[in-house]
Amino acid sequence: MSASLAVEGLFAGYDRADVLMDVSIAARTGEITCILGSNGSGKTTLVRSILGLTPPRRGRILFDDADIGGLPTHRVIGLGIACIPEGRKVFPKLTIEENLRLGAYREADDDTIRERLRDVYRVFPRLEERTTQLAGTMSGGEQAMLSIGRGLMAGPRMLLIDEPSLGLSPRFVAQNFDVIRRVNEQGVTVLLVEQNAHQTLAIAHRGYVLSQGRVVAQGTAAELRNNEEVRRAYFG
Amino acid sequence: MDPGVLAQYAFNGLMLGVIYAMVAVGFTLFFGVLDVIQFAHGDVVMAGAFVALATYLALHGLGVAVPGLVVIVVACAAALAMALLGALIARYLVLPLRAAPAFNTLLITLMLGSILRELVRLFYPNGSNPQPFPRLLPTASVNLGNFTLRLDTTILLVVGLATIFVVNLVVRRTRLGLAIRAVAQDSETARVMGIDFQRIVLVTFAIGSALAGIAGVVYGLYYNEVNFDIGLLLGVIGFSAAVVGGLGSIYGAIIGGFLFAALQTIGSVALPVSSAYNNVFAFAVVIILMTWKPTGLIAEPTSERV
C-alpha cells in the first residue's frame, strides 16, 4: 500500500526567479527520507512543487512512476499524498473535529472516517477532550497535534511533513517525531523537511541536504551524520 | 398609534427584511470564498424576477394553469437560471481576475450589472416600463382590526426564511459546507486537504445566485410588479446589510438585512417628514453604525493565532 516519490531535475520558483535548481531526490517506499536545509534553501518550495501549489518549470515529479508534475493540488492529494504543512495551518475558526474531518475530505466512507477519528484520538487524547473547541483558540503545541492528526485522517500512502518542529518546545518536538516514526512503521512513506538535523537524522533512513536551491549532500542518515559539510553546517 | 397599523408596518418590514437578507447572504458567501464583492448581484435578483415572469408567460401560453404547480415551476426556473448565471460569472469573470487587484473585480461586476439591466430594458418586450407580475399565490386574508394578514405574503415570508435556513444548514452541517468554510478561511490549505478549489467557488456562486433568483421571485410576488432597474437599490441595500452585519458572516447578513428593513420601516413610521425619506434615514443610520463598528455587528468568534 505504500508508495515512492522521485523528483528528477526539478526547477521551480516564483515570478521569474528559480528557487530550486536541478533538484533530484527520491523517497523510497516505506522509508523516512529527510530534506535538511537552512531557511531559504528551497525546502518549502520543494514541498509546494510536489503538491502542485508551485508548479515545476522543468523536471519531473514521479509518484509511483506516474508523472504528477503540474497536476492540480486536489488531484495530487487524491492519489494518496497528504501534507502536514509548515506552520501547522489549522483552520482557526473550525472546530477540532471539523479540522480532522477536512483531513479525510477525499474519503467518502463514513465508517472509515469514524475509524480514523478513533485512531487519531488514540494517538492524541488531548484532541478528543475538546472536539468542539475552535482550533484558533488552542496552544501552538495542540495545534501541531491537530495538524498531524489531520494529515493522518487522509489515510495517506505518503506523508509530506514540512518543519514539524518549528516553534515547538523540545518536549512536543520529541513527541511529534515519535508519532512520525510510528506512522512510518505502519508502512507510510514519509518525506520529512526539517532544519533540526539532530533529531531528524535520528529517525530518518536517508536524506538530502539542500542549500541555495541545490542538493549539496545526500546519503543514509548515518552517512549524513558523519558528513563533514553537514557537521559544519548543523552540529557546529 | 393604533396597534393594528403598527403590526401591519412590522409585518411589511419583516417581508422586506427577508428579501434583503436573501440578497445579503449572497454577498457574504462570495466575499467569504474569494474576498470579492460581486456588484452585479442586485441585478441577478432582477434577472431572476424576469426569468420567473418569462417562465410564467410561457406556461400561460402553453395553457398550464394549475396554480400551485405554476408558482413552483416559476421559482425553480428562476433559481436554476440564476445558479447557472452565478457559476458563469464566477468562472469567466471573477476567477480569471484572482491575481488582479480587487478593484478590477469590483469594476467588472459593476459593469456586468449595467449590461444585465440594459439587456432587460432593451430586449424584454416593453422592457423600459414596469412589468406587472402575476399573483400566483392564494390571496385569502384575515382582518384583525387595522391589521390585514394576507395568506400570500405569509407564504412568501415563510418560504424566504426557509430558503435562508436551508442555505445556512448546508454551509454549517454538510461536507460541501465544510469545504466552503475551509476555502473561506484558507484557500491554499483547503486545496492541500484535497478540496477542488474552483469547483467549490463555482458551487458557492451558484448557491448565492440561486438565492438571489428566489429573492427576485419573492419580490415580484410581493409587489406584483418588477422593473429593469430594481437590482440597483436591492444590490446597494443587500451589500450594506452584509457589511453592517459583518462581511463573511451568514448570521451577520441575515441580521443586517432585517436591520435595514427595520430602519426603513421606522423611517416611514416615526419620521415627521414624508415616508419617501425612509432610505435617507436608513442609510444615514448605516453610516453611523459603520463608524461605530467598522468590521460589522457580528464580531469574529476567535482571535487567530499563528
How does this structure look, described?
The complex is a heterodimer of chains A (236) and B (306). Chain A has a domain at 1-80 and 157-162 and 188-236: Rossmann fold (3-Layer(aba) Sandwich). Helix content of chain A is 39%, strand content 26%. Chain A contains ten helices and ten strands. In chain A, the strands form two sheets. In chain A, strands 6-7-8-3-9-10 form a six-stranded mixed sheet, with helices on both faces. In chain A, strands 2-1-4-5 form a four-stranded antiparallel sheet, covered by helices on one side. In chain A, helix 4 (110-123) runs antiparallel to helix 6. The longest helix of chain A is centred in the C-terminal third of the chain and has 16 residues, at 170-185. Chain A is globular. The longest helix of chain B is centred in the first third of the chain and has 32 residues, at 3-34. In chain B, helix 9 (230-245) crosses helix 10 (250-270) and helix 10 (250-270) packs across helix 11. Chain B has helices spanning 3-34, 41-62, 67-94, 102-123, 151-173, 175-185, 187-192, 197-223, 230-245, 250-270, 278-292; strands at 131-132, 141-144, 147-150, 225-226. Chain B contains eleven helices and four strands. Chain B has a single domain, classed as ABC transporter involved in vitamin B12 uptake, BtuC (Orthogonal Bundle), CATH 1.10.3470. Chain B is mostly helical and 306 residues long. Chain B starts with a helix and ends in a 14-residue tail after the last helix.
